[in-house]
């Protein structure tokens, strides 16, 4: 489903500060895979996830999602692709502080025009799966960090995206909450058949993935 060919990405290109953040990346991720991108700080994990998620353009090479070449899309088409096909989970959970947990989880579905009853039903379903049903009426600022991260995951999966991209989803969690979140992501991958790609440099988290993609200095380590 995701295919990268000879992908290169620079920051500050052609200046003395130039960083060659992704170097000739070749990578294929099949539908239904549960993979982790790992490697030391600065090796390019976030840059790679942002490129696959059509958040950032690359300088050369090709990235396709189900055959759609990302560089061929204008900004409107890219944002539609993100909204309709990809669920994002960021390190900073990016929940909307003035909305309840329930409204946050249903947020993407609402943007996509799902009917209120369908949203209600699906929010209840994912809240059960992620064990946050009791917090549905709370505001994000009044629940724990681990619960907030689970809400962020629930929001990403609620609209049934084909793909979930998670950048260091356990970075701000203690080991118990990390384990809990990983177990839930694994279950989502198995039950909902969503392709999941996340980044981490936590050994425990990395071991949970079915596929490990190692990056070093912007290159995939064979
Ligand atoms: N917006 C940016 N502007 C300039 N340089 C950047 C930018 N984003 C990333 N870089 C540089 O690109 C390289 C790859 O960074 P990236 O954030 O992808 O690494 P990472 O593996 O995700 O690191 P970490 O584990 O610390 O989050 C680094 O050298 C970084 O300094």
Automatic annotation (TrEMBL):
Pfam hit, one: ABC_tran
Keyword Transferase: no
SMART domains: AAA (SM00382)
Record-linked InterPro entries: AAA+_ATPase, ABC_transporter-like_ATP-bd, ABC_transporter-like_CS, ABC_transpr_LolD-like, MacB-like_ATP-bd, P-loop_NTPase
CDD domains found in the cross-reference section: ABC_MJ0796_LolCDE_FtsE
Domain called ABC transporter: residue spans: 2-221
GO molecular function list: ATP binding
Keywords: ATP-binding, Nucleotide-binding, Transport
Protein name as catalogued: ABC transporter ATP-binding protein
């Amino acid at each position: 489903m995701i295919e990268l060919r000879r992908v290169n990405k620079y920051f500050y290109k052609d200046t003395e500060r130039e960083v060659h953040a992704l170097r000739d990346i070749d990578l294929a991720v099949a539908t239904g895979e549960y993979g982790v991108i790992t490697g030391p700080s600065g090796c390019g994990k976030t840059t790679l996830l942002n490129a696959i998620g059509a958040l950032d353009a690359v300088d050369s090479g090709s990235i396709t999602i189900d055959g759609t070449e990302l560089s061929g899309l204008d900004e409107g088409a890219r944002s539609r692709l993100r909204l309709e096909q990809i669920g994002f989970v960021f390190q900073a959970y990016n929940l909307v502080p003035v909305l309840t947990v329930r409204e946050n989880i249903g947020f993407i579905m609402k943007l996509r025009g799902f009917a209120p009853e369908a949203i209600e039903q699906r929010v209840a379903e994912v809240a059960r799966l992620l064990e946050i049903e009791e917090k549905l009426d709370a505001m994000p600022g009044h629940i724990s960090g681990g619960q907030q991260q689970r809400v962020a995951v629930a929001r990403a999966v609620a609209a049934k995206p084909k793909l979930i991209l998670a950048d260091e989803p356990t970075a701000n969690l203690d080991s118990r909450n990390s384990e809990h979140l990983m177990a839930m992501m694994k279950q989502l991958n198995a039950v909902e058949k969503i392709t999941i790609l996340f980044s981490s440099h936590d050994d425990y988290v990395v071991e949970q993935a079915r596929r490990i993609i190692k990056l070093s200095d912007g290159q995939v380590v064979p």
